[in-house]
Design the sequence.
């Protein structure tokens, strides 16, 4: 268990270090003589942003903010599209992973009650899982979170410091794994949730 935990922490640290390297590489000025370098930076930043933002616990959002700071409002639509793409990529990853993977993760973290709950939910349909979770929870806050789960996800991915609970990528992977979020409504939720910052940069001239 210790070895697995060390490997996991090492991977997260390596990915975070890579995100910081990409962010620093985007700190350049746009001049007529470095147009090719700017194009390469945009391509590198775009690919790194989509991939790293989808990973749990990795602060990939820093790359998006660095691109907005470096290239201004003109890059905001691309940042928005990449953010939605990355979040849906993480959701799809969780969606196609077997729910037993979540059970094993919870067991690995010694969260036995949660692991047993996941094992009970595994053979159920989405509606049956929601009903089971609602019936088994007495706390009002938990019931509200389940009933308004799309709003809860929108708030979670926009909460500052959410990297301690997995970041946007981790949140969306768990949402996909849970099986209680429909693809269309999840897409609509993310499309609305991540829009404020790009829209503010585009239309209000907000400086990052």
Sequence:
């Amino acid at each position: 268990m210790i070895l697995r935990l060390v490997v996991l922490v090492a991977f997260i640290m390596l990915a975070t270090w890579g995100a910081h390297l990409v962010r620093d590489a985007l700190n350049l000025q746009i001049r007529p003589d470095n147009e090719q370098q700017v194009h390469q930076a945009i391509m590198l930043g775009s690919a790194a942003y989509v991939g790293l933002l989808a990973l749990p616990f990795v602060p990939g959002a820093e790359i998006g903010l660095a691109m907005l700071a470096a290239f201004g409002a003109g890059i905001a639509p691309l940042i928005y599209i990449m953010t939605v793409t990355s979040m849906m990529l993480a959701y799809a990853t969780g969606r196609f992973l077997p729910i037993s993977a979540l059970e094993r993760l919870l067991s690995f973290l010694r969260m036995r009650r949660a692991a047993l709950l996941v094992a009970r939910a595994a053979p159920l349909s989405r509606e049956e899982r929601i009903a089971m979770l609602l019936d088994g929870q007495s706390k009002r806050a938990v019931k509200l979170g389940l009933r308004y789960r799309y709003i809860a996800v929108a708030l979670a991915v926009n909460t500052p410091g959410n990297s301690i609970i997995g970041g946007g990528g981790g949140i969306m992977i768990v949402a996909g794994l849970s099986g209680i979020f429909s693809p269309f409504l999840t897409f609509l939720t993310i499309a609305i949730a991540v829009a404020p910052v790009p829209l503010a940069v585009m239309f209000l001239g907000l400086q990052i």
Q: What stands out?
A: Residues 1-208 form one domain. The chain is about 75% helix and 0% strand. The chain has one domain: 1-208.
